[in-house]
Amino acid sequence: MELKLKGKRALVQGASQGLGRAIAEALIQEGAKVAICSRDPDRIAKAGREIGAAAAIAADLNHPGAGTTLIKMAEEHLGGLDILVTNTGGPPKGAFEELTVAQWQEGFQSLWLSATDSIRAALPGMRKRQWGRILLVTSVAGREPMNHMNVSNGLRAGLLGLTKSISNEIAKDGITINALLPGYTDTERLQELNIPKERITSQIPAGRLGKPEELAALATFLSSEPAAYITGQAIACDGGYLRSI
């Protein structure tokens, strides 16, 4: 299938490792011109060299307004922006009564405001060109809450509603927006959560963890021309983990 991504300009957030890097690399392999970002200047520069990114930008999306600034920088590097992939690290885990107000505020900035700021800044250019693809990398936790992941469960569920709401406003402009719901995937984030793999895989019908490149394949298709009629959706890549339809 010809995805018609050659020459398209993309920004992938949180791309120094894990899912973000896999998505950026897949888009590059399809001929897209890709800018990547993460908060660590050295790590993002190294990742950029290794995958052949057009630009590697250091940006900390935990800071208010960073999403808007990042979009402007990416547009300057690429000459415009056709594809936006929002992706940030997961918030801290903890029982509800253990979480502080500061942790909730940090999660809101990282997961929610960074995404809305980025989308708001990217939309004018996409509307002008009457073409755009927006992908929000969220989690299956947005649909089925995970134990002790209250910040993630609450905010990611809200992003799914926002995705559908925005899609109704921008579809007429040739712009799609979809949420990707990765399940348990073999990344550095999973190692940080310190959950035994055996306990996880026993809950997954596929009997194994996901691979970053599997989510990247889904993201690449949804970024393409053939995916123009898919919008406002929350699509899981989870080996059958979700029990709801």
Tell me the Rg in angstroms.
17 Å
SSE topology string? EHEHEHEHEHEHHHE
Give the number of DSSP strands.
7
What is the terminal-to-terminal distance?
Answer: 28 Å
- Tell me the quaternary state: single chain
- Which word captures the global form? globular
Structural class: alpha/beta
Report the top-level CATH class: Alpha Beta
| Count of helical stretches | 8
What proportion of the residues is helical, as a percent range?
Answer: 40-55%
- Which residues sit in consecutive blocks of at least 5 with pLDDT less than 50? none
Strand line-up of the largest beta sheet: 3-2-1-4-5-6-7
Beta-strand percentage range: 5-15%
CATH-level-4 superfamily name: NAD(P)-binding Rossmann-like Domain
CATH architectural group: 3-Layer(aba) Sandwich
CATH topology: Rossmann fold
Number of domains: 1
Could you give a short account of the major beta sheet? Answer: 7 strands, parallel
pLDDT average, as an integer?
94
Describe the structure.
With 245 residues, the chain is an alpha/beta fold. It is built from eight helices and seven strands; from the N terminus they run E-H-E-H-E-H-E-H-E-H-E-H-H-H-E. It has helices at residues 18-29, 41-51, 66-78, 101-129, 150-170, 188-193, 197-201, 212-222, and strands spanning 9-12, 33-38, 55-58, 83-86, 132-137, 175-182, 234-237. Strands 3-2-1-4-5-6-7 form a seven-stranded parallel beta sheet, with helices on both faces. Helix 1 crosses helix 8, helix 3 runs parallel beside helix 4 and helix 4 runs parallel beside helix 5 (150-170). The longest helix has 29 residues, at 101-129.
